[in-house]
Design goal:
The complex is a heterodimer of chains A (331) and B (285). Chain A has 331 residues and is mainly alpha-helical. Chain A has helices at residues 6-24, 26-29, 34-60, 67-84, 89-110, 116-136, 166-189, 191-201, 203-208, 213-239, 249-261, 269-283, 288-305, 309-330, and strands spanning 146-147, 152-155, 160-163, 241-242. With 285 residues, chain B is an all-alpha fold. The chains are: A mainly alpha (331), B mainly alpha (285).
Chain lengths: 331, 285
C-alpha cells in the first residue's frame, strides 16, 4: 500500500468531523424526544461494546465469548465506585480501564496456548464463572445487583458536566464512540494491528518474520478489553442499575452480530451493525421471542449466505448494476 | 453429610454429563465443530418428548423415540445449512452460526411452547429406592444403566468398524480421506445427526428429574464443556472418565463447600488444567 497523499488525509479528517457534527444533531433531527436520545445513546454505547469483540474477531480471527466479562465488569466497577465512594466519572473510567486491562492480561495469559474452539470455550467458561460470582457475591449486590447509580459527573476544570437524562448523556456517548473509532483506526494502521492480521492470515510467515504470535494475541486481547469495559462504564450511568443480567448471552449475540453484519474489517462496521439491530428492536419489535428469532437468524444468515456482510452485498449490487448498464449501452 | 449418598449423587450426575457430552465430543473430534446450540438442542429434545406425550398421548418410551427422530431431522436441516462452512472448515464462522441457531431455537421454542414450566413425566421418576439412609429413583438407575453401554457401543463402532474408521480418517485429514474415495461431507452430516439425536436422547432421560422450561439448556449443558475439554477432545474414554470426575467433584463440592459456586469451581479447575496441560488431561500435547 502506498502512503496516502497529504490532502487526502486532510479530506478524510474533514469528512469525519462533518459526519461527527451531523451525528451530534441526529437525535434532534429525529424529533428530539427522550426516546430518540436514549436510542441513539444506546446505539453508541453498544457499538463501543461491539468494537471490543470486533478487534479480536476481525484482526485476530478468534471468537471471544468472554467480552461480556469486560462489559459487565466495567459497569460493576463504575457502579461500586460511584455508589460506595462517590467517585466522579473520570475516576470510574480510569478504574474501569485499569480493571479491564489487568483482567484481560490474566485471561490472555491463561488462554495463551489455546486456539480456535478451545479459546472460545475457555473465554465462555470465564464468563460463566464471572456471572456466577456476580450472582452470588453479596459485596457486588448478588442477584439484586447495584441500584441507584448516581448521574454521571465529569469535572472539566472550568465547569462540571453532569449527565442524568438521555439527552445529557448523548454527547458523552457520541464522544466515547468517536474516541473508540479514532482508537480502532489507529490500531488498524499500527504495528500491532498489522502483526495481528499477519498472524491470522499467515501464521507461518509471521513466525518467519520474527513475530511472537503469542505476544501479538495477548496484546490484541488486552487492547480490545477496555473498549467493551468503557461501554459498560457509560451503560451503568445510563441505566442507573448494574446487575448480573449484563452477562446474558443477549449482549454477546449483539456484539457478534454487529461485528459481522456490515462486514469484517470495516471501520464503521460495528456502528452500522448496532444501529440496524437496535433500530429493529426499539422501533420494529415483534416481541422478545420474535426479536430473538430475528437476531439469531441475522447472525447465522449473514455468515451462511453472505460472509462479506452488507458491504459485500453493496459491492455485488454495484458490480451487477455497472455490468448491466454496460450491457445496455452496448446492445 | 452422608458419604455414600454423595457418592451415588455424584455417579448419577456423572452419567448425566457423559450422556449429554457424548455427541458433542464425537462432533468435536470428527468435524472440529463446536455446536453452541447444544444446550438448545437439549431443551428442544425434552420439549419434543413432552409435546408427543401431551398431544399424541404416547407413552414415555415412545416419546423418547419421537424426540430422537425429530432432533435427528433438525440436525440434518442444520447441517445442510452449514454444509459449505463445514466443508471449508471455517471454524470461526461455524461457532458463531451455531450460536445464532441456538438463539433462534430458544426464541422459537418460547413462541411455540410458552413460557411456563412443564414436566416430562416418566413412570420411573416416581418409583424410588430407599435403602437405609440412601435414596435414588429408578429414573436415575435407568440413566446410569443406559449410559455405560452407550459409551461401549460408541467405542466399538469408532474403533472396530469400517464406519468408525471412516469417521476417524475424515477427522484426521479430510482431503486425504477424499482421495481414498470417502465423502467428508456425508461423514460430517452423519456425525452432526448423531450429536443432535444423542443429546435429545440424553434430554429425555434427564429432563424428568426436574421441570422443563424453554429457557433451560444452558445450565444443563454448560458443565459438559468441562467434560469435553478435560477428557481430551474426541476421546471416548476420556469423556467418560472426565464425567465421573466432574460428577463426584460437583456432588462433594456442593455438599461440603458451597452449592452456589459449583459451576465456577468446575470452571476454575478447567482453567487451571488448561494452563498446565492445554491438550486436556488425556491429551498427549
Amino acid at each position: 500500500m502506498t502512503s496516502r497523499p497529504r490532502n487526502a488525509t486532510w479530506l478524510r479528517m474533514a469528512g469525519g468531523a462533518a459526519a461527527a457534527v451531523a451525528a451530534f444533531y441526529l437525535p434532534a433531527l429525529a424529533g428530539g424526544s427522550a426516546v430518540a436520545y436514549s436510542t441513539c445513546a444506546t446505539i453508541a454505547i453498544f457499538a463501543v461494546m461491539a468494537y471490543g469483540t470486533d478487534l479480536v474477531l476481525s484482526y485476530l480471527g478468534e471468537v471471544s465469548l468472554g467480552h461480556t466479562i469486560f462489559w459487565a465488569g466495567g459497569a460493576y466497577v463504575t457502579a461500586l465506585l460511584a455508589t460506595r465512594l462517590g467517585c466522579n466519572a473520570w475516576l470510574t473510567a480510569l478504574a474501569t480501564v485499569v480493571f479491564a486491562v489487568a483482567l484481560a492480561f490474566a485471561l490472555g495469559l491463561a488462554t495463551l496456548k489455546t486456539r480456535e474452539f478451545v479459546f472460545s470455550l475457555v473465554t465462555y467458561a470465564a464468563a460463566v464463572v464471572a456471572m456466577e460470582i456476580a450472582f452470588n457475591w453479596a459485596f457486588v449486590g448478588g442477584s439484586d445487583g447495584i441500584t441507584g447509580v448516581p448521574r454521571l459527573v465529569l469535572p472539566l476544570g472550568f465547569r462540571t458536566y453532569a449527565g442524568g437524562t438521555s439527552a445529557e448523556l448523548w454527547p458523552v456517548a457520541l464522544g466515547l464512540l468517536l474516541l473508540t473509532l479514532g482508537f480502532v483506526d489507529r490500531f488498524r494502521r499500527s504495528r500491532l494491528g498489522l502483526a495481528a492480521l499477519m498472524v491470522q492470515m499467515n501464521p507461518g510467515l509471521a513466525m518467519t518474520l520474527g513475530l511472537d504470535t503469542r505476544r501479538v494475541r495477548v496484546m490484541v486481547f488486552v487492547v480490545s478489553a477496555p473498549l467493551s469495559a468503557l461501554a459498560g462504564w457509560l451503560y451503568a450511568y445510563q441505566r442507573a442499575y448494574v446487575g448480573p443480567d449484563m452477562f446474558e448471552s443477549y449482549f454477546l449475540v449483539v456484539m457478534l452480530t454487529a461485528a459481522v453484519l456490515t462486514g469484517r474489517r470495516v471501520l464503521l462496521g460495528p456502528v452500522f451493525g448496532t444501529a440496524i439491530i437496535l433500530t429493529q428492536q426499539n422501533l420494529l419489535s415483534v416481541g422478545g421471542d420474535g426479536d430473538k428469532i430475528i437476531l439469531g437468524s441475522v447472525l447465522a444468515g449473514v455468515l451462511l449466505f453472505w460472509p462479506q456482510g452488507l458491504v459485500g452485498l453493496w459491492r455485488f449490487a454495484r458490480h451487477a448494476v455497472v455490468k448491466r448498464s454496460r450491457g445496455v449501452a452496448q446492445g | 453429610m452422608n458419604l455414600a449418598q454423595q457418592l451415588i449423587n455424584g455417579v448419577i450426575l456423572a452419567a448425566g454429563y457423559a450422556c449429554v457430552a457424548i455427541g458433542w465430543t464425537v462432533l468435536l473430534g470428527a468435524a472440529r465443530l463446536v455446536n453452541f446450540a447444544h444446550g438448545q438442542l437439549f431443551m428442544l429434545g425434552a420439549f419434543a418428548a413432552w409435546f408427543a406425550m401431551r398431544r399424541a398421548g404416547v407413552s414415555y418410551g415412545v416419546s423418547i423415540l419421537v424426540a430422537v427422530v425429530v432432533m435427528a431431522v433438525l440436525g440434518i436441516v442444520m447441517q445442510l445449512a452449514m454444509r459449505r462452512l463445514v466443508v471449508e472448515q471455517n471454524l470461526t464462522s461455524l461457532m458463531i452460526v451455531t450460536l445464532g441457531f441456538g438463539y433462534v431455537l430458544q426464541g422459537a421454542a418460547a413462541k411455540a411452547f410458552g413460557g411456563s414450566p412443564q414436566s416430562l413425566v416418566s413412570p420411573l421418576e416416581k418409583a424410588s429406592v430407599r435403602w437405609g439412609e440412601l435414596w435414588f429413583s429408578w429414573q436415575d438407575v435407568l440413566l446410569v444403566v443406559v449410559t455405560l453401554p452407550l459409551f461401549a457401543a460408541l467405542w466399538l463402532v469408532l474403533e472396530r468398524t469400517r464406519l468408525g474408521a471412516t469417521v476417524r480418517a475424515v477427522a484426521e485429514d479430510p482431503k486425504l480421506a477424499q482421495l481414498f474415495g470417502l465423502n467428508p461431507a456425508w461423514t460430517y452430516t452423519g456425525v452432526f445427526v448423531f450429536e443432535a439425536a444423542s443429546v435429545a436422547f440424553a434430554a429425555t432421560l434427564i429432563a424428568p428429574r426436574s421441570p422443563i422450561l424453554t429457557s433451560m439448556g444452558f445450565d444443563e449443558v454448560i458443565l459438559t464443556f468441562v467434560v469435553v475439554v478435560l477428557g481430551g477432545v474426541g476421546s471416548i474414554g476420556g469423556t467418560l472418565l472426565a464425567s465421573l470426575g466432574l460428577g463426584l467433584f460437583t456432588a462433594f463440592f456442593g455438599a461440603l463447600v458451597s452449592p452456589a459456586y459449583t459451576t465456577a469451581a468446575a470452571f476454575a479447575v478447567l482453567l487451571t488444567v488448561l494452563v498446565i496441560r492445554p491438550g486436556g488431561l488425556s491429551g498427549a500435547r
